[in-house]
Amino acid sequence: MALRNILIHPDPRLKKVATPVANVGDVLRRLADDMLETMYDAPGIGLAAPQVAVMKRMIVMDCAKEDAGTPEPMVLINPQVVWTSEERNVYDEGCLSIPEQYAEVERPAEVEVQWMDVDGKSKRERFDGLWATCVQHEIDHLEGKLFIDYLKPLKRQMITRKMQKLKREMARG
């Protein structure tokens, strides 16, 4: 396993739509392991392949560690929301590609998602609470959408300017 670099907004790759995974093999399983290690190290609760510059429809997540519970790592390949609740939920979201920035985003409180696991098996599950927010946030990444895209233009521009400044500082190292 290896830690991967996480792209920081603004980066054009974060705005691209990821391509579906055709077949699951060792390379993809290795990527899943790397992504989980990178997510835990960051630390975060979710990570999408485009955030590590791999333009494939794959996400990893683990919301159990938020509650200091036993880790429950999940790898979702080609995830798709197939049902959403009418009930909405507001959560103060952050993103590993937009460090230290948080904003309230409203999303469906519950979602049902279907995906393929690392063994190529089809899965379907209903998520609620933080898991529902996280899976929707990560699937958004696969569509080239960031949580700041839900914000008013002024707030979005302010966060983008902070990220540009952060990237300049990181480049000077």
Explain what this protein looks like in three dimensions.
With 173 residues, the protein is of the alpha+beta class. It has one domain (12-172): Alpha-Beta Complex (Peptide Deformylase), CATH 3.90.45.10. Helices cover 29% and strands 29% of the residues. It has helices at residues 26-41, 129-142, 153-172, and strands at residues 46-48, 58-61, 74-84, 88-95, 98-108, 110-116, 122-128. β4 and β5 form a beta hairpin. The two termini are 26 Å apart.
Strand order of the main beta sheet, please? Answer: 1-2-3-6-7
Average pLDDT taken over every residue: 95
Give me the count of strands: 7
Question: What's the name of the CATH homologous superfamily?
Answer: Peptide deformylase
Derived structural class: alpha+beta
Query: Major sheet: size, sense and barrel closure?
Result: 5 strands, antiparallel
General form: globular
Ends apart, CA distance between termini: 26 Å
What share of the residues lie within helices?
A: 25-40%
The CATH class is identified as Alpha Beta
What's the gyration radius in Å?
16 Å
Strand content: 25-35%
The low-confidence runs, each spanning 5 or more residues with pLDDT under 50, are: none
Notable traits:
single chain, 173 residues, alpha+beta, Peptide Deformylase, 5-stranded antiparallel sheet, 3 helices, 7 strands, 29% helix
Compact summary:
The protein has three helices and seven strands, in the order αβββββββαα.
Q: How are the SSEs ordered, and which strands pair?
A:
Layout: H1 26-41, E1 46-48, E2 58-61, E3 74-84, E4 88-95, E5 98-108, E6 110-116, E7 122-128, H2 129-142, H3 153-172
